[in-house]
Design a protein that fits this description.
The protein is mostly beta strands and 58 residues long. The chain has no helices and three strands. It has a three-stranded antiparallel β-sheet, with no helix packed on it.
């Protein structure tokens, strides 16, 4: 038996400093989906929480 899978949004991968992030578009802006980093503290930052709206970093 096959279970129908929901449609997932297309991710956009971008490099931010030494990290890579995956975002997807929402009406509110780019939404964080995933972060790839060798810096463990990057995973603890509030702005990198999955589901948060991504704001470009300078």
């Amino acid at each position: 038996m096959l279970i129908e899978q929901p449609d997932f949004p297309a991710y956009k991968t971008q490099q931010v400093g030494n990290d890579f992030i995956d975002t997807y578009d929402t009406p509110q802006g780019a939404c964080m989906a995933r972060i790839y980093s060798t810096d463990l503290s990057a995973y603890l930052k509030k702005e990198n929480t999955p589901g948060s709206i991504y704001k470009a970093r300078t």
